[in-house]
Amino acid sequence: MSDPNDNSIMLTDPLAEPQPDPRVADRFGHDFTEPTRSGIRAQPLTHIDHEGPKPKAILSINHVGKRFSVGGNTVEALRDANLTINKGEFICLIGASGCGKSTLLRIIAGFETATSGTAAMYGEPITGPGPERGMVFQDFALFPWLTVRENIGFGPKQRGLLGAGLKEVAERYMEMVGLTRFADYYPAQLSGGMKQRVAIARVLANDCEVLLMDEPFGALDALTREKLQADLLDIWTKTQVTVIFVTHSVEEAVYLSSRVVVMTAGPGRIERDETIQLPRPRDVSAPDFNEVRREITRMLTSHVMHA
Ligand SMILES: Nc1ncnc2c1ncn2[C@@H]1O[C@H](COP(=O)(O)OP(=O)(O)O)[C@@H](O)[C@H]1O
Ligand SMILES: [Mg+2]
Fold first, then answer.
1. 230: pLDDT confidence band, cut at 50, 70 and 90?
2. What is the pLDDT of residues 72-124, one digit of tens each?
3. Is the CB of 69 under 6 A from ligand 1?
4. Per-residue confidence at 265, pLDDT binned at 50, 70, 90?
């Protein structure tokens, strides 16, 4: 309900002190200062003791459990998973095969419902899929009969965008993923890396706020994978989208993320939640990178050995 005494609508004061770029500062909750290739760079996130505005929670996973019934048996995929994700973070979920990473991602996407607990976005329980939470799959899931431009424009078109508006959105996201020259190509004419770029652009063109990626680069060769990792970081920096990225690879997790969430198997639980403070761009061969990689590997293997 609105308060008649509330005069909080404020106009820009031309004499006010210059403020940090709100497109950056608002979403992440703090400042970004160091330039990179794309012009801005996130400082390490999730500092509880950071001065200034507190990071804003976008997703809350509260005591989430998931059981599947399979032929009279019950499989417990997740047990009491708790996780708060702030706007603009890049989270990697890592853990042994079968520990429930995909299940957790699918619950956030709204493809599965939790058996216990709640998954919520901005405090609202997630009850089904929505364009604000976009999933990118390993097998691309593009429409083979549509061109790059049409694949990317599909979601906005479904939601009623037409003509110049639709063209503008498709062009913007094609440019973001470097596929402008391939606008009229069909998926079958593209390499795996290009298809994955279309998949990312398609989700972003839907005004997605949370990009859910389930081992998205697992099917690609090492060089393509490295290129796409760098491109994804560039896209993340430009759009400030929140990313939840499932991977098996410790190196990939440490290279990409602002936080690594380590899950344990049988049934899946969130065991460790580590902020990665390494400055970007990260060098996978640097001693401090190796130290973090060793530490995360140690966390993972200790669970596997005790499983
Ligand atoms: N639809 C399903 N029906 C039955 N069991 C499932 C289903 N999805 C996942 N599981 C089981 O739940 C557990 C976690 O699976 P998953 O989330 O795919 O793990 P991960 O992605 O970490 O490899 C596994 O034991 C898996 O067999
Ligand atoms: Mg999986």
1. very high
2. 999 999 999 999 999 999 999 999 999 999 999 999 999 999 999 999 999 99
3. no
4. confident
- Given a cut of 50, whether residue 229 has pLDDT beyond it is yes
Residue 11 has pLDDT above 90, yes or no: no
Asked whether the predicted pLDDT for residue 8 surpasses 70, the reply is no
Residue in this structure with the two tokens 């950056």, named with its chain if needed: 24
* Ligand 2 (single-atom ion) residues, CB below 5 Å: 102
What is the distance in A from the centroid of ligand 1 to the CA of 13?
A: 54
What is the position in ligand 1's atom list of the atom closest to the CA of 112?
Answer: 1
Q: What is the DSSP string of the chain?
A: ---TT--------TTSPPPP-HHHHHHHSS------TTS--PPP---TT-SSSPPPEEEEEEEEEEEEEETTEEEEEEEEEEEEEETT-EEEEE-STTSSHHHHHHHHHTSS--SEEEEEETTEEP-S-BTTEEEE-TT----TTS-HHHHHHHHHHHTT--HHHHHHHHHHHHHHTT-GGGTT--GGGS-HHHHHHHHHHHHHTTT-SEEEEESTTTTS-HHHHHHHHHHHHHHHHHH--EEEEEES-HHHHHHH-SEEEEEETTTBEEEEEEE----SS--TTSHHHHHHHHHHHHHHHHHHHH-
Distance 260 CA to ligand 1 centre (A): 21
User: Is the pTM above the cut of 0.70?
Assistant: yes
Span from the CA of 104 to the centroid of ligand 1 (angstroms): 10
Q: What kind of fold does domain 56-132+210-307 have according to CATH? A: Rossmann fold (3.40.50)
In the chain, domain spans:
56-132+210-307, 142-208
Position with higher pLDDT, 35 vs 274: 274
Q: Is the peptide bond before 267 cis (omega within 30 degrees of 0)?
A: yes
Note the ligand closest to the C-alpha atom of 263: 1
